[in-house]
Design a protein that fits this description.
Length: 218
């Protein structure tokens, strides 16, 4: 698909574009929504006042965090996802790229794929997806193709985020479906899992390297 910057250029001089840039510093701080997308970001501090995020959504994101921890225990990058309808869990998934050697086995892609099979319907309009990390282009594409009703994600992903950070695939009106997207749900907890995982991985690499140096003959 065309990079998001094309869409950005188109509305650079429009009143919305000017307004949007005026409020950019506030948006970066998560203090106001981005008017160009249907994505809202917020910290857990004022989730309570946001009618868009329910107690069920929070419970589902907590479940996704548990699934992410299962991934971490298998030495996978900790990302977890839950597909649900009301309070009923339809499918779950966590990142399995290392175990499967399959580059498409991201948590939310697995969960959405399983949900379609469980419901015997690839259209997931009635479903919400809670995933601990902002979906990448592939997974954001799956949310569109699966016509997911609502997408809630935790941490933003500066390296691959395709719902708000790098691309806005889920808000792109050239595509035939736009899920409602709410970002930043339990973001601190979701991000902490990733930070802890990569800190541990770096420590393991250092320890291995130091061990190898000790074994070197003098
Ligand atoms: Zn992905």
């Amino acid at each position: 698909m065309a990079p998001a910057s094309n869409a950005h250029d188109q509305d650079w001089y429009s009143p919305q574009g000017l307004l949007s840039r005026l409020f950019l510093p506030l948006r970066r701080l998560g203090l106001m929504p981005d008017p160009r997308t249907r994505t809202r970001t917020h910290s857990h501090l004022h989730l309570r006042h946001d009618p868009g995020v329910t107690a069920i959504d929070l419970a589902m994101m907590r479940r996704a965090i548990e699934l992410a921890k299962q991934a971490a225990a298998m030495d996978e990058v900790p990302v977890g996802a839950v597909v649900y309808q009301g309070s009923r869990i339809i499918a779950e998934g966590y990142n399995l790229r290392e175990a499967t050697c399959d580059p498409v086995t991201h948590a939310e892609l697995l969960a959405v794929s399983k949900a379609g099979r469980a419901l015997k319907d690839w259209r997931l309009n009635e479903c919400s997806v809670a995933v601990t990390l902002e979906p990448c282009p592939m997974c954001a594409g799956a949310m569109v193709n699966g016509r997911v009703g609502r997408l809630l994600y935790g941490a933003t992903d500066p390296k691959a985020g395709a719902c708000q950070t790098l691309y806005r695939i889920t808000a792109d009106r050239r595509l035939n479906h736009q899920p409602v997207v709410i970002g930043g749900v339990l973001a601190e907890e979701c991000a902490q899992l990733l930070k802890d995982f990569f800190r541990q991985r770096r420590a393991d690499i250092r320890a291995r390297r130091d061990g190898e140096q000790v074994r070197q003959p003098a």
